[in-house]
Design a protein that fits this description.
The protein is an all-alpha fold. The protein has one domain: Amino acid/polyamine transporter I, CATH 1.20.1740. Helix 3 crosses helix 10, helix 8 runs parallel beside helix 12 and helix 12 crosses helix 13. It binds isoleucine (ILE). Its main location: membrane. It is a multi-pass membrane protein.
């Protein structure tokens, strides 16, 4: 059977942007920035996106498009009898870990959407949004229902195939989300206390930087660009060889970053206006945003629209994560797309059940240090596996491929910046990633 293909280059770009823009830009970016001191974190994050993220993204697309296979198959195709494909399995492991918690958070977003439809969140609940949110996530069954619903939607899109599903939806929803976020940002900066929030986000306090903050910024750059997990490699593999990659890659990277910054401009003024701690972790946006909506004119409609679009953004990212193992199992075991999507989706659902219970009956379970179940899975995936996946990608393109192969696979052959890119892929990115690791485990100071 012929391999599936995107309908057009624009379709590919939108799908890849759909993958990049998701909960990572709004939910994860804001709380990780909040926990890691704001401004200085932002600068590190931006540095990593442009210096390492976007160049490695181009390398990841190139491997996928050249290999024309899934994350394991592409490596095997391009370097038979070499152990590179093990990096592919690492990507599959990341996709399970990430979707395991991603779908739970997306379920919370769907629940919020529903509460804006039925009117319960139009005014501040008696207990306040904070306690209401805590009540939701510590409940045993309610979050499981919404998380299940989200997984069903994700599976449905993935089993419909590449072209018909999200390629269409992304065209409408992403621009709408962008417009809405900008409007919210304009509103948010008028809140009392906004200045303090903006200072927190934009004024670097270098004293806050330590090895943990650096690792967190690297992890966030990878997470947000969907990098190192094989999603972009798999998406790249559905692209015909005739389409050019560099401009698409830069477009995707910039767009993803702008979304994160604008989301920060929405959230941090509200954090200060409502006197919430910036370091309150994963619940942050679920408490601050409804607070903004409750104060603004037509807030209930804005809230409804916002959580609808956030859920859609999460969906277009989740499908790219599910696609990683689905594509692998389809090829490796000759499973149908339908069977593969359902089977793997269900396994991921159950992983999510563990994550969800981690906020309730299992809230005392802390697999790594004092990190709960979600945070532990996120730590292993985002701060360790994704950068390692990125390291493998950079080494593969930089060293396994000849200069000629690398330049032609990435369509960089005639571009002036080709040696800059190659230098980053060969030296800078691997060295940075390794140094950051060594530093975070305390080997270098
Ligand atoms: N890049 C997306 C996001 O930022 C997903 C990350 C795919 C796992 O939400």
């Amino acid at each position: 059977m012929a391999r599936e293909k995107w309908a057009s280059k624009l379709g590919f770009m939108l799908a890849a942007m759909g993958s990049a823009v998701g909960l990572g830009n709004i939910w994860r970016f804001s709380y990780v920035a909040g926990e890691n001191g704001g401004g200085a974190f932002l600068i590190l994050y931006l540095g990593f996106v442009f210096l390492i993220g976007i160049p490695v993204l181009l390398a990841e697309f190139s491997i996928g498009r050249q290999g024309q296979s899934d994350v394991v198959g592409s490596y095997k195709e391009l370097a038979p009898n070499k152990p590179w494909y093990l990096a592919g399995f690492m990507g599959i492991a990341s996709s399970f870990l990430i979707l395991g918690f991603y779908s739970v958070v997306a379920g919370w977003s769907l629940y919020y959407f529903w509460n804006y439809i039925n009117g319960s969140f139009w005014t501040i609940p008696d207990a306040g949004y904070g306690a209401t949110f805590e009540g939701l996530i510590s409940n045993t069954t309610t979050p499981l229902f919404w998380h299940g619903l989200f997984m069903v939607l994700t599976i449905l899109v993935v089993l419909t195939g590449i072209k018909k599903g999200i390629e269409k939806a992304s065209k409408v929803f992403m621009p709408t989300l962008a417009v809405l976020l900008v409007l919210l940002a304009i509103y948010s900066v008028t809140l009392e206390g906004a200045g303090e929030g903006l200072r927190f986000l934009f004024q670097p306090n270098w004293a806050k930087i330590d090895s943990g903050v650096i690792l967190a910024a690297l992890g966030q750059a990878f997470f947000s660009l969907s990098l190192g997990m094989g999603a972009m490699m798999t998406y790249g593999s559905y692209l015909p060889k005739s389409e050019s990659l560099p401009s698409a890659t830069v477009g995707i990277g910039i767009m993803d970053t702008v979304f994160a910054i604008v989301a920060g401009i929405v959230i941090f003024p509200a954090v200060y206006a409502f006197d919430i701690s910036a370091s309150s972790g994963p619940p942050l946006v679920f408490i601050t945003l409804p607070g903004i909506f409750a104060q603004m004119p037509f807030g209930s409609i804005v809230g409804l629209l916002f959580f609808f679009l956030l859920s859609i953004a999460a969906l277009s990212s989740a499908i790219s994560i599910l696609e990683v193992p689905v594509a692998y199992f389809m090829r490796r075991f000759k499973w149908s797309r339908r069977f593969s999507s359902i089977f793997i989706g269900v396994i991921m659902y159950f992983l999510g059940v563990v994550v969800s219970l981690g906020f309730g009956v299992w809230s005392g379970v802390t697999p790594i240090g004092d990190l709960g179940i979600l945070d532990s899975m996120d730590y292993v995936a985002s701060n360790i596996l994704l950068p390692l996946g990125g390291l493998a990608i950079a080494l593969f393109v930089g060293w396994q491929w000849s200069v000629k192969e690398a330049l032609s696979a990435s369509d960089m052959t005639n571009l002036g910046v080709r040696y800059v890119w190659l230098g980053i892929i060969k030296f800078l990115a691997p060295i940075f990633i390794v140094l950051i690791f060594l530093q975070s485990i305390g080997i270098i100071g």
